[in-house]
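Quiz preparation item.
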């Protein structure tokens, strides 16, 4: 299972790298460094959500991971889907 998880992360990471390199013309090294920093920052709630931040209550009294789930599922995804639909209709 460890091998499968690492290969999946590499495959997803490769798509992110291709975006930065192709669209902005960045070097692969710069894209890797930026994505590594972004992934480390984005993974902090998952790492600390039930440890150091377990007592932290954010959106509506929810803990860190539940707040993140609420924001992504109820706010970000619908808004992004609407943007994609509107841009597709124009």
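Solution:
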């Amino acid at each position: 299972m460890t091998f499968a998880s690492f290969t999946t992360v590499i495959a997803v990471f490769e798509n992110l790298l291709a975006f930065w390199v192709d669209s902005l013309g960045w070097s692969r090294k710069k894209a890797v460094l930026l994505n590594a920093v972004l992934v480390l920052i984005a993974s902090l709630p998952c790492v600390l959500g039930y440890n150091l931040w377990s007592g932290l209550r954010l959106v509506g009294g929810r803990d860190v991971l539940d707040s993140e789930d609420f924001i992504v599922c109820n706010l970000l995804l619908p808004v992004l889907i609407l943007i994609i639909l509107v841009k597709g209709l124009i």
